[in-house]
Amino acid sequence: MTIFKQNLLRGEKITNVLRILKINRSTYYKWRLFKPSAYELATQHLKQVIKTLHADIPIYGAPRLTMWLQKLGYGASQRRVWRIMHNLSIKAAVGHVNQKPRTKVIYPQRPNLVKNHPERPYWSADILMTYSNQV
């Protein structure tokens, strides 16, 4: 039980309890008489529908779920579906990523004779060009 209810059960007046807890009387009555709006109720219902649709096909993201919901008759935008999915921590399951084909080498590679040469330094050029002094 909350502190508020405990004090009320002991016979305290509401105004005294609210003054001790430093809560405005209008805030208390607004909280006590609170009813969720039609939009909030529709959002709660849409959350349940999105959960069941995502359980059926987990690869669908917000755009495809929005199309599916609109076919079922729910008026929901893609942004609203994305926001609900984000609040529920639902993400689309990503399939495999296409990779580029790679070269498969069946035979062993030739050794790098220059890199593994025991005597370093080595000559890296084998063609010398000579210029004559003929002008």
Topology, element by element:
Blueprint: H1 3-9, H2 14-21, H3 25-32, H4 38-56, H5 62-72, H6 78-87
Helix pairs in contact: 5-6
Short description:
The chain is mainly α and 135 residues long. Helix content is 47%, strand content 0%.
Strand fraction: under 5%
* SSE run: HHHHHH
**Main sheet overview:** none
Q: Please identify the oligomeric state.
A: single chain
Count of alpha and pi helical runs: 6
Residues in helix, %: 40-55%
Q: Which residue ranges are poorly predicted, with pLDDT under 50 across at least 5 consecutive positions?
A: none
Number of strands: 0
Distance linking N and C termini = 108 Å
**What structural category do the secondary elements indicate?**
mainly alpha
What radius of gyration results from the CA coordinates?
37 Å
Please state the overall shape, judged from the principal axes of the Cα atoms.
elongated
Mean pLDDT: 82
Task: Give an account of the 3D structure.
With 135 residues, this protein is mainly alpha-helical. Among the domains are: 30 residues, no CATH class; 50 residues. Helix content is 47%, strand content 0%. The chain is built from 6 helices and no strands. Helix 5 packs across helix 6. The relative contact order is 0.07. The model has no long low-confidence stretch (mean pLDDT 82).
Characteristics:
135 residues, mainly alpha, 0% strand, elongated
